[in-house]
């Protein structure tokens, strides 16, 4: 379930402090320590899975739960801002060191409140 020397496993076990936005049986959502958007959250499965390159078939259900939580966040942020429509957002997932992953416990970046393509980023 957990891996020693993994910062996210320590956060999940509350051995390291973080700002927790949401927690379920399988997932935790925390604020990114170095936010790149007004809303920059990390959606993290509690089980230590390195990344999408090595996820096992029996672990794939967690991706659906991660998507569900992203949808819920967009609705909740809208409600906080008195908006009736869900806020728009980006999900970023870095898988592997050469793809920019720096914490090797799978997570999705949830980014809202800013157009990340305005600064020239193109996909
Ligand atoms: P990655 O580079 O692996 O896609 O994303 C890792 C993210 O974790 C980075 O955006 C980084 O700011 C964030 N991060 C690293 N250490 C901590 C920490 O101790 N607490 C929190 N809340 N975020 C962290
Ligand atoms: Zn971990």
Fold blueprint:
Blueprint: H1 7-12, E1 20-23, E2 27-31, E3 39-45, H2 61-80, E4 89-92, E5 108-112
Antiparallel strand pairs: 1-2, 2-3, 3-5, 4-5
Bound molecules: guanosine-5'-monophosphate and zinc ion (ZN).
The site of guanosine-5'-monophosphate has 13 residues, from strand 2.
Verbal overview:
Helices cover 21% and strands 20% of the residues. The protein is α+β, with helices and mostly antiparallel strands and 123 residues long. It has a domain at 7-33 and 43-86 and 94-107: 2-Layer Sandwich (HIT family, subunit A), CATH 3.30.428.10. The protein has a five-stranded antiparallel beta sheet, with helices on one face. The longest helix is centred in the middle third of the chain and has 20 residues, at 61-80. Guanosine-5'-monophosphate (5GP) binds at residues 7, 18, 30-34, 42, 94, 100-103. Zinc ion binds next to helix 1.
CATH topology of the domain at 7-33 and 43-86 and 94-107: HIT family, subunit A
Total of helices: 2
Element order, helices and strands? HEEEHEE
Number of distinct beta strands = 5
User: What is the residue-mean pLDDT, rounded to a whole number?
Assistant: 97
CATH classification, class level of the domain at 7-33 and 43-86 and 94-107: Alpha Beta
Structural class: alpha+beta
């Amino acid at each position: 379930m957990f891996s020693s020397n993994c910062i996210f496993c320590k956060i999940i076990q509350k051995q390291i402090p973080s700002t927790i936005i949401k927690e379920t049986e399988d997932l935790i959502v925390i604020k990114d320590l170095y936010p790149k958007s007004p809303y920059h959250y990390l959606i993290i499965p509690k089980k230590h899975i390195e990344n999408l390159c090595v996820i096992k078939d029996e672990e794939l259900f967690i991706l659906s739960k991660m998507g569900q939580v992203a949808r819920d966040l967009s609705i909740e942020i809208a409600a906080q801002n008195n908006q009736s429509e869900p806020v728009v957002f980006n999900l970023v997932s870095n898988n592997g060191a050469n793809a920019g992953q720096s914490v090797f416990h799978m997570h999705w970046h949830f980014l809202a409140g800013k157009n990340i393509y305005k600064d020239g980023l193109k996909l």
